[in-house]
Design brief:
Length: about 210
């Protein structure tokens, strides 16, 4: 759940799960932060062997301080891609495309294509848990940023040369971030190790020839 100005709502715990972090990327250079909708923060893969469950999370447009009626970032012109390589050849065996759009009433929705174990295309409202098939869930919306990092300790360590981290101090605590969360059966992806990476691309209007 996203953080609100008055309270923090905790997420449900994950039992027997392994969380794999693939590079935090908060507070980027100006070129990236100028386009928050296309600026990836983190990519997570959480798997539960016993439950045959894989959860993929892509976060972006982060560091939002809580505000009443705050919404996630849903840019129609940005394509989000999650790539999965199951045989270590550095080529994606599964390519999951995620896009946002609006209906005639102006309500935002999400479209997911290529999620293993799911229908070819899943379409539904944002801020809603979609369940298009057994063992498959899709969500896109605002959430409390799950990334934990002691930025003050990091800066102090750099300045002094002495480790100054405090594992109870989280710079990102209480901030919100937009998230794409995809859940499917682990067996639909791989029975062994796999690689995961994500990209974004922004559509640009064609330029006229002079």
């Amino acid at each position: 759940m996203p953080t609100t100005p008055t309270r923090l709502v905790g997420a449900a715990g994950l039992s027997a799960a392994l969380i794999c972090f693939i590079g935090a990327d908060h507070a980027d250079a100006p070129g990236a932060t100028a386009d928050p909708a296309a600026d990836i923060a983190d990519v997570y893969a959480i798997h539960d062997l016993a439950a045959d469950r894989l959860t993929l999370v892509l976060t972006f447009a982060g560091l939002k301080m809580p505000a009443l009626n705050q919404q996630g970032t849903y840019d129609d012109d940005v394509l989000y891609v999650i790539n999965i390589d199951t045989n270590n050849d550095k080529v994606a065996d599964f390519v999951i495309d995620v896009r946002f759009g609006q209906n005639p009433a102006g309500a935002s929705g999400v479209r997911v294509a290529g999620l293993p174990g799911a229908p070819a295309v899943v379409i539904g409202a944002v801020e809603t848990i979609l369940e298009p098939a057994a063992g498959v869930k899709v969500f896109a919306g605002l959430r409390d940023d799950p990334f934990f990092f002691d930025l003050d300790g990091f800066n102090a360590t750099r300045m002094s040369g002495n480790l100054s981290f405090d594992n109870t101090r989280d710079f990102f605590a209480g901030t919100n971030i937009s998230a794409i969360v995809l859940e499917t059966k682990l067996s639909a992806v791989s029975s062994t190790a796999f690689s995961l990476w994500a990209t974004t691309a922004r559509a640009t209007a064609p330029t006229a020839n002079n």
